[in-house]
Amino acid sequence: MPATPAWPPQSAPRLFVETPLAPGEIRIDGPQAHYLVSVMRTKPGAAVKLFDDATGEWLGVVRATGKRDLILDVTEKLREREAVPDLWLCAAPIKKGRIDWVAEKACELGVARLAPVLTRRTVIDRLNLERLRAHMIEAAEQCGRTALPELAEPVKLAVLLRDWPAERALFFADEAGGTPALEAMRARPGPAAILIGPEGGFDDDEREAIRALPQAVGIALGPRILRAETAAAAAVSLWMGAAGDW
Asked: How many structural domains does the chain have?
C-alpha cells in the first residue's frame, strides 16, 4: 500500500493573521490573498497554516477563492504558541536595509522585544515601524515561528536608562572593552537585554551614563570590529547559547 501523504503537507504556505484564531471561518484579502491565489495558485481543498502570535498555529482549509479574497475553514490547532526567551534587543537605528535585516534576524533568533534606541550618533531620524514589522512577519512565516517580537516605539537613550526595570540585566556592546560576552551572560542569568549602539558607537557621556546603571554590564564581542547589525546578531546568539536556548 502506498504511504498516506502527510497532512497538512510540509509545503503548505504559512500566513500570519491579525485576527485571533479559533475553529470556524476566516476571510483573507489584500496582499495575502493575492499571494495565495495568484502566486501560489491555491485551490479549494488546499491546506494553509495560520498563526496569530497569540493562540498558536492552526490548519486552514480553503473553501472558496475569488479575485481579491478567499475563504478558509479553520479546522484544528496544530501547535501552541512557542515559549519565547526573555531577551530584549535595544538597537540604535541604522541605514534602511541594514535595520530591516536586524528586525528579520531578531525574529529568527527568538528575541522577545525589539526596541529602537536613539543616541547622539544615530543618523536615522525617522523609522518605518510598519516596514520593520513586515520583515519580522515574513521571517516568522518562512521559519515556522508562532510568535513575533514586540516592536517598541523609538526611545531616546536617556529615557531608556531612566525607566530601566530593576530585574533586567543590560548587556551593552562597549567598543572601549568589557567582560567577554559569553562569560558576562553566564554570570547574569534571567531577564536580559542587549544594547547595541549606532555606527560610530556611543559617545563618552552616553557610555558613562550606561555604566552608571546598576543593571548594566559592558561586554566585548571578540577581537574584531563588527558592524552594528553584525554585533546585534552575534550578541543575541551568544545570549541564546548561554541561556540554553540553543
From this structure: 2
